[in-house]
Amino acid sequence: MNIAKVEIGQQEKPGDEHNPRVLEYLATCGTQYKTDETPWCPAFANWVMIHAGKKGTNSALARSWLKWGEPIEEPRYGCVVVFKRGTSNWQGHVGFFVRTEGDKIVVLGGNQSNTVSIAPRSKSDLLGYRWPGPKD
After folding, report:
1. CATH number, residue 80
2. 72 part of a folded domain
3. Cα–Cα distance measured from residue 59 to residue 63, given in angstroms and rounded to the nearest whole number
4. How many domains is the chain partitioned into structurally?
5. Do the domain assignments include residue 50?
6. What number is the average pLDDT over the span 73-83?
7. Three-state DSSP class for 82?
8. How would you class 133 by CB atoms within 10 Å of its CB: exposed for 0-12, middle for 13-18, buried for 19 or more?
9. How large is the average pLDDT for residues 98-114?
10. CB-side exposure of 134: number of CA atoms within 13 Å?
11. Mean pLDDT of the chain
12. Is the pTM of this model over 0.85?
C-alpha cells in the first residue's frame, strides 16, 4: 500500500499530451499503449505489484485479478478488490482495499475519475477479494 499511496494524484492529461507515469503503468500489461486515455486500473495494480516484488497478472483486464493469488472471504487492508463494471461480463475495476463504509468499499486504485485516488465503490458490484498466494 505504501507504493500505491505515493502515486495518489497521478492522472491522465487531457488532449494530445499524456502522463508518462500512466504510460509506465500501462507498459506492465505487455502492450505498447500510446495514450493515457486507455482504461488503466489493472495496469496500475500490475505496476504496484511489480514494485512490491510480487507478480501481477500482466493483463489489461481488471477481471484478470480474479485469477491472481488466492480468494479471501473477508477483506484485509491492501488486498486486491475486483468489481464488476458496465454491462459486459469482461468489464471490471480493480483496486486495493482501504476500508468499508456502510454499503461502500473504499479502494485505492488507478483510473478512478482518471486519477490514482482513494474512492468508494458499491458493495453490490463486488466480485471478489484476493490475497497473494505462495507463488505470487
Report:
1. 3.90.1720.10
2. yes
3. 9
4. 1
5. yes
6. 97
7. strand
8. exposed
9. 97
10. 0
11. 93
12. yes
